[in-house]
Amino acid sequence: MDFSKCKMIDGALGTEISRRGFSVDGEVLWSAKAILEKPELLKQIHYDYYLAGADIVVSATYQFTFETMKKIGFEKDKSIELFHKGIDLVAEAREDYLKSLNYEIENIPLVGASIGSYAAFLADGSEYTGFFNKTKQELIDFHLERLELCCENPNTDIIALETMPSFLEAEALIEIFNSGKISKKAYISFACKNKEQINDGTLFADCVKICLECDNFLAIGINCTKPEFVPNLVDIANEVMKKQKKQKIIMCYPNLGNIWDSEKQTFLPDSGFSENDFVSLLHNLFINKKCSIVGGCCSTTPEIIKKLAELVKK
Ligand SMILES: [Zn+2]
């Protein structure tokens, strides 16, 4: 299906893997650990999100980096193979889903290849502060290799640049895409710490503004942000686009608002929004045309995505 027709993105992956009994909390690879050790479980979760109504399901490669793989003893070739496997598992889940429908479906949902922030590689929750001592060039070097692999993989429909906490990193990613080295399209989504700033303190409005200058970005989003901040952030995105006279798709997939426990490297359950409040918040943003793709991040589940999809696709 065409990306512009998408309405729903999937829900959490890392927290969902842990919820199903394979804890990846505090692991250096986080959800990517399941590519190595629990591929069947991972494929099942991807499948469940397609079944729930997601038009875009995203791979477990968010925290997969070659630096980490080397540290835990993997040769480069094997690491590259496993990175591709993370994307391929989503495509396999989609194939199973299509088969279950006897291929009787008008719009075939998409496979997203997830790329996390440099902060995700640090595996210490730096996504939530956005502070890491790197130059723009270092961030370019860090991101380029995985982005090239996403492009090489024929299963990648869209590249998901997610939970970006840093303005400098957004600039680095824009520079990569504007250099023409990356042929596939992407969306970029920011993690915000309040109603107007991304996690490093930059105004979200400034981030939207620079991302409008990247033709390869099909959408600009907000993810892994507390749901109560999201309505205002979506308004900001709309205002900037109006002012700049440039329109891109706005995506919104906040987390459930659970409190982050930095010691345990996990979200404390039941400390955020109720499922119903979460679903109605996003449904409202969607029906009021404030954003056109909705879904969930950490602590959301296929059940929540199903409830939201039923409303959005009515
Ligand atoms: Zn998240």
UniProtKB/TrEMBL annotation:
Domain annotation Hcy-binding: ranges: 1-312
Record: residues binding Zn(2+): C224, C297, C298
Keyword tRNA processing in record: no
Superkingdom, natural source: Eukaryota
Keywords: Metal-binding, Methyltransferase, Transferase, Zinc
GO annotation, biological process: methionine biosynthetic process; methylation; S-methylmethionine cycle
Protein name stated in the entry: Hcy-binding domain-containing protein
Organism, scientific name: Anaeramoeba ignava (Anaerobic marine amoeba)
